[in-house]
Write a structure and sequence with these properties.
Blueprint lengths: L21 H6 L3 H7 L11 H10 L7 E6 L5 E5 H17 L7 E5 L4 H12 L3 E5 L5 H10 L2 E6 L1 H8 L11 E4 L10 E3 H7 L14 E7 L7 E6 L2 H11 L8 E4 L6 H13 L3 E5 L5 H10 L4 E4 L1 H8 L5 H4 L7 E5 L5 H11 L3 E5 L9 E2 L13 E2 L5 E8 L2 E4 L7 E5 L9 E2 L3 H5 L2 E2 L2 E10 L5 E6 L4 E3 L2 E3 L1 H9 L4 E11 L3 E10 L7 H15 L7 E4 L13 H9 L14
Parallel strand pairs: 1-11, 3-4, 3-5, 5-6, 6-7, 10-11, 10-12, 12-13, 13-14, 27-28
Antiparallel strand pairs: 1-2, 8-9, 9-20, 14-15, 15-16, 17-18, 17-19, 19-22, 21-22, 22-23, 24-25, 26-27
Helix pairs in contact: 3-4, 3-5, 3-10, 4-5, 4-8, 9-10
Bound molecules: adenosine monophosphate.
Length: 586
């Protein structure tokens, strides 16, 4: 079914979009010009994300402007001006220095959306150390893998999360020298200390050391189909992309109130939940609580949010509720809505138009790209179901595979192929930590291969087709089936495990496991529940399977790999296609 485009009416714009004409902006675009809109460290000492996001405003006219408003679970607010943020992040950078943490050392954060997380991220960047966020719903298994692979030296977390999921791992993490508890007003042990006390004792004065724009800044773990999670490394000059997309895609203007609902445990929550809005000097809203429709509408109303960046799962959850937001809430300040992370169905774009008075602008990017690559812009008509057009300065293509190592662009429109990007944008990942070969494999015939399948129409709009691999996107979170299978295989009753994403109307896909059992372990409801609990305890609620189905044996290729593709076909009731590489018909 094809959907009518949503036409934009320039006469209705209260604020003219930053990107008024796509073609013109692309034609005149240069990264040098974007760089000139930023400050750079005083004295030509390089480029540091935290300087661009915090200090340059704190040192100037935006000093007393509200930078970050935090809303606690209970609804209390705590405000930080740019000057406050500068002072607190200075203290954290000094605290790191006192702990002997320097350039390139990894500082991890494992916390919900609390102010200490934001101070940690920006203070770490000031110090020239590497910031790595972890999703707070991860269980001990994903945490162990990431902390160990990332060689975490400092972890900022809460007492609850530390006791529940980290304390048990300490023996296996010899590099982890310091744990700072955000909610403890006292030191608990020599190496488990109070974040607040440390901050209070540190100086509020700090000079950011010279920072090469290519210096490593951020580490984001993302799941692969095989092996352990990959640590994508980003550099300080990624801030050019955060700034440019904040300006052109999110259309941030001075005085805007911006709310990104993503969790900083994932890349969107860092690039756009922390850096981009601050780099543009607007007010950033942070809500500690999880999704709650009425609370969300109240925040949009009470905080006078003007630009809102959210996700398809959340939009679909809002859509199914009998709430009429425009009648029940005063949303007159809302000017622009964008969404990312999973396919945004056309019905959701239109629901925005009807229920909120604004269409939802889909955009596309991924951990490795560090920033938005393809977008529906404020000034452009929307074609529902399309992710939009590549950003100025970004060259995208649909490529066809010639062989395992070679691809070529498909010139004609309307053909499905792999989505590829021409390397060279500032926030492109600079490596997978300790996995050079895995990194190099992503680049073929001069293109970065994204792992997504897409098609482009005759006007250059891109449409998402699916993943080219077995990665699962559940409620916007990336889950690698291998991680889940490995944990299931550790259960004494499990012989084989194959994990797929089962389509779900709200959360996109849910994690489903197929399991065959060892001889002497008959399937039973009790065992199924035991396995679900086992996986949840080890992996955490987001990664663990929601469904487990027992099978006598699982289909394997002749080389012995579980055929997830076939499991998925069967789950969907689709024809099984070519099964000639199957070991045996099962
Ligand atoms: P992550 O690295 O966790 O941010 O996930 C990136 C992946 O999410 C992409 O490679 C896509 O598979 C998916 N994704 C992101 N944005 C969109 C979108 N707008 N439409 C469809 N899929 C998306």
């Amino acid at each position: 079914m094809s959907w009518e485009p949503i036409k934009k009416d320039p006469s209705a714009w209260t604020v003219p979009p930053n990107l008024a004409c796509y073609e013109k902006t692309c034609a005149g675009f240069s990264w040098e010009a974007i760089r000139r809109e930023l400050d750079g460290l005083p004295g030509g000492r390089g480029l540091n994300i935290a300087h661009e996001a915090v200090d340059r405003h704190a040192n100037g006219a935006l000093r007393n402007q509200l930078a970050l408003r935090w809303i606690s679970r209970e609804g209390q607010t705590e405000d930080f001006t740019y000057a406050d943020l500068k002072e607190k992040t200075n203290r954290f950078a000094n605290l790191l220095g006192q702990l002997g943490i320097g350039k390139g050392d990894a500082v991890f954060a494992l916390a919900g959306r609390i102010p200490e997380l934001y101070i940690t991220a920006l203070g770490t960047l000031k110090n020239g150390s590497l910031f790595c966020p972890l999703f707070s719903a991860f269980g001990p298994e994903p945490l162990q893998q990431r902390l160990s692979k990332g060689e975490a030296k400092v972890l900022v977390t809460t007492t609850r999360l530390y006791r529940k999921n980290v304390a048990q791992l300490r023996a296996s993490l010899p590099m982890l020298k310091h744990v700072l508890l955000a909610d403890s007003d006292q030191d608990v042990a020599e190496d488990v200390c109070s974040f607040q006390q440390g901050l209070a004792a540190a100086s509020g004065e700090f000079t950011i050391p010279p920072t090469d724009p290519e210096q490593h800044a951020l580490l984001h773990f993302t799941s692969g189909t095989t092996g352990t999670p990959k640590g994508a490394i980003h550099v300080h000059q990624a801030v050019l992309m955060h700034y440019m997309t904040g300006k052109y895609v999110l259309d941030l203007h001075p005085g805007d109130v911006f709310w990104c609902t993503a969790d900083p445990g994932w890349v969107t929550g860092t690039s756009y939940g922390i850096i981009a809005p601050l780099a543009l000097g607007v007010t950033n809203i942070v809500d500690e609580a999880d999704f709650d429709a009425e609370r969300w509408y109240r925040i949009l109303e009470q905080q006078r949010v003007s630009v809102w960046y959210t996700a398809p799962t959340a939009i679909r959850m809002l859509m199914r509720l009998p709430i009429e937001p425009r009648k029940q809430y005063d949303l007159r300040h809302l000017r622009f809505i964008a969404s990312v992370g999973e396919p945004l169905n056309p019905a959701a774009v239109l629901w925005g138009q009807q229920a909120l008075g604004l269409p939802i602008h889909d955009n596309w990017w991924q951990t490795e790209t560090g920033g938005i690559m393809i977008a529906n812009f404020a000034s452009m008509d929307i074609r529902p179901g399309s992710m939009g057009r590549p950003l100025p300065g970004v060259e995208a293509a649909i490529v066809r595979r010639i062989d395992e190592k070679t691809v070529e662009p498909i010139p004609e429109p309307g053909v499905d192929g792999e989505l590829a990007l021409k390397p060279g944008w500032p926030s492109m990942f600079r490596g997978y930590l300790h996995e050079d070969q895995r990194y190099r494999k992503c680049f073929q015939s001069g293109w970065y291969i994204t792992g997504d399948l897409a098609r482009r129409d005759a006007d250059g709009y891109y449409e998402f087709v699916g993943r080219a691999d077995d990665i699962i996107k559940t409620a916007g979170h990336m889950v690698g089936p291998f991680e889940v299978e490995s944990v299931l295989l550790e259960h004494p009753a499990v012989a084989e495990a194959g994990v797929i994403g089962k389509p779900d109307p709200i959360i996109g896909e849910l994690v489903k496991a197929f399991v065959s059992l060892k001889p002497g372990c008959p399937p039973s409801e009790e065992l199924r529940l035991d396995l679900l609990g086992f996986a949840r305890k080890r992996l955490g609620s987001v990664v663990a399977p929601k469904e487990i189905e027992f099978q006598k044996s699982l289909p394997r290729t002749r080389s012995g790999k579980i055929m997830r593709r076939l499991l998925k076909m069967r789950e969907l009731g689709l024809p099984e296609g070519d099964t000639s590489t199957l070991e045996s018909a099962v």
